[in-house]
Design goal:
- The structure is a single chain.
- Helices cover 51% and strands 11% of the residues.
- The chain has 7 helices and 4 strands, in the order βαβαβαβαααα.
- α3 packs across α4.
- The chain is elongated, with a radius of gyration of 27 Å.
- The N and C termini lie far apart (68 Å).
- The mean pLDDT is 86.
């Protein structure tokens, strides 16, 4: 089955050119979103994904109609290929997995390479950002912030040494769980 997907960024834009071209490509069903391509979490896009079956072909007007993030789009196209779904861009004939010719295969390989490149660039930017934040003393590290500061821990340890309060009372006072209490007590 040939399934089409069209998208315009605003309700003011007219999707008619896309729809006519997709219909002309043989689409039996067309999904249309009227919102930004910033995220792939769009209602009709999700319905379209759920409709696609192995052997189907997804037709779209241009690659940027799928989404704006190159990485998201490449991951989506790779998932289509993995699921046995073919794809075809009307405006970009080299993006056509329905053809089994060398150019189409080369283009799919290049898309995979660009996807990996994009992932590596993002990873490198994150590492650089963390290094800069650490150098400036702004890096918070990973995970949830600690509930107790150094002074709170010292106060809790003092209370434990005195031994006048119950575990439950101390947990309520310091707003911690019993497991945190026992973990801190062992450090003592």
């Amino acid at each position: 089955m040939i399934i089409g997907y069209a998208r315009v960024s605003t309700t003011d834009q007219n999707p008619q050119t896309q729809i006519e071209a997709i219909r002309g490509a043989g689409a039996e069903k067309i999904f249309l979103d009227r919102q930004s391509g910033k995220s792939l979490d769009r209602p009709e896009f999700q319905k379209m994904k759920e409709t696609l079956l192995p052997g189907d072909t997804l037709v779209f007007y241009k690659l940027d109609r799928i989404g704006r993030s190159l990485l998201d789009v490449l991951n989506f196209l790779q998932s289509l290929s993995k699921d046995g779904v073919l794809f075809r861009s009307i405006s970009e004939p080299m993006l056509d997995s329905t053809k089994n010719d060398p150019l189409s295969k080369a283009m799919q390989g290049m898309l995979a390479v660009f996807g990996e490149l994009e992932r590596n660039i993002i990873r490198e930017r994150v590492r650089e950002g963390v290094a800069i934040a650490k150098a400036q003393g702004k890096f918070k590290g990973r995970g949830r912030p600690k509930r107790l500061g150094v002074l709170d821990i010292d106060g809790l340890k003092t209370e434990i040494k005195i031994g006048e309060r119950t575990v439950t009372d101390l947990c309520k006072k310091f707003k911690i769980s019993k497991s945190t209490y026992y973990r801190l007590k062992e450090v003592n």
